[in-house]
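Duplicate of #3305? Posting structure anyway:
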């Protein structure tokens, strides 16, 4: 009989953190085929941090947009407003202590402490999540605030994970941060366009200032598509500065959302408010392969 050397097996906090990270990994692959595929291009030690970041923001988004609201239909004492505040407070506590009884927040806290994600980056995210519970329409100021918190800072969090072991000049860091902000913004705006009708009819929201399904036309669509493409171009400019595996993943994400944006541009405005644009799995795998072969070289 061969005995197992238990000294080489994780125990205690190490085992708990490992289990927490596995729970975070399950979130990304359950909720997003696209991001799940892109993260496969990242080396394992960095990939786990991206999985942890995604899991935290996904759960927060579910509290204000999805599962919590559905649960509240049958349980009147459940209040999404209270739940997101509690989740936010527990997140900060986990970041401070390096421990949480919430597995997703524990995994995020381990990542945040290691790669340098500060509360100053995380707070704008939660501010935007809480806006989803109160703001049904946006003006230019509130829209910029919302996109910064809900998407751009998530790009900054991922950038921290990508580069925390690397050294860059101030000029290079500026390019990288501008690229991360632009990529997060482009992702969010593409999703706004894809979900225009659903957001308005089901959630009563209109994210783009002055835009809703009643006045959405070709000129508006072209303006928004051009804005997204310019942000994707800015994100692409930063790719050569990223570590190789991160460059591959970011390139894949850029090309995936670029493909979505092109499909949106070719879809009539009247049809776009009735249909959610998507990319086939076959096309996603092709983009993945091309990004693996073409980025970081």
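Output from current build:
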């Amino acid at each position: 009989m061969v005995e197992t050397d238990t000294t080489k097996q994780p125990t205690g906090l190490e085992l708990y953190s490992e289990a927490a990270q596995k729970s975070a990994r399950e979130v990304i692959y359950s909720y997003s085929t696209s991001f799940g595929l892109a993260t496969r291009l990242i080396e394992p030690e960095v990939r786990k941090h991206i999985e942890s970041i995604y899991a935290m923001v996904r759960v927060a988004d579910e509290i204000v947009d999805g599962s919590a609201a559905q649960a509240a239909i049958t349980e009147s004492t459940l209040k999404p407003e209270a739940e997101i505040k509690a989740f936010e407070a527990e997140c900060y506590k986990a970041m401070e202590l390096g421990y949480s009884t919430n597995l997703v927040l524990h995994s995020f806290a381990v990542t945040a402490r290691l790669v340098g994600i500060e509360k100053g980056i995380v707070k704008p995210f939660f501010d935007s999540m809480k806006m989803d519970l109160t703001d049904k329409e946006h003006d230019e100021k509130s829209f910029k605030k919302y996109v910064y918190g809900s998407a751009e800072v998530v790009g900054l969090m991922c950038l921290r994970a990508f580069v925390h072991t690397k050294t860059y000049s101030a000029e290079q860091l500026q390019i990288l941060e501008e690229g991360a902000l632009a990529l997060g913004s482009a992702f969010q705006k593409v999703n706004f366009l894809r979900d225009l009708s659903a957001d308005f009819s089901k959630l009563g929201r209109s994210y783009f200032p002055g835009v809703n399904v009643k006045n959405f036309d070709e000129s508006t669509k072209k303006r928004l598509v051009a804005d997204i493409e310019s942000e994707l171009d800015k994100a692409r400019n930063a790719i050569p500065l990223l570590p190789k595996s991160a460059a591959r993943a970011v390139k894949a994400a850029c090309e995936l959302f670029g493909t979505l944006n092109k499909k949106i541009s070719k879809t009539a405005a009247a049809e776009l408010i009735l249909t959610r644009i998507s990319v086939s799995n076959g096309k996603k795998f092709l983009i993945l392969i091309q990004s693996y072969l073409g980025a970081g070289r």
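Confirmed duplicate; merging threads. The first helix runs from residue 12 to 31. The radius of gyration is 20 Å.
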